[in-house]
Input
Amino acid sequence: MVEKLAALNVAGWSDFSMNDKPRCPHCGDDFDIRENEEWRLYDEQNSHDIECLGCHISFRVNSHARWSFSTDEQDDD
Output
C-alpha cells in the first residue's frame, strides 16, 4: 500500500509543479490525460480531483493555461 503524499514528500514540490502531465503525489506515476480520456482537465475550472490508476488514491490537479497570440499573417490589400 502506498502512503499518502509519499512521492511528493520525498521528491519535493518542484517535481510536481507545472508538468506536461499530472503526476500522482502519492506514488509518483504520470497520469496520461489522452490515454485516460480525461479531457475535462483542460476546461476553465482550474482544479479537478482524479484517481491515480497506479495506486488508486485520489488527488487534486490544478491546471494552468498559457495563451499566445500571433499577428504575423496579415492580408496585404
Observations:
- The CA atoms of residues 42 and 68 lie 16 Å apart.
- DSSP finds one helix and two strands in the chain.
- The two ends are 67 Å apart (CA to CA).
- The chain has one domain: 6-62.
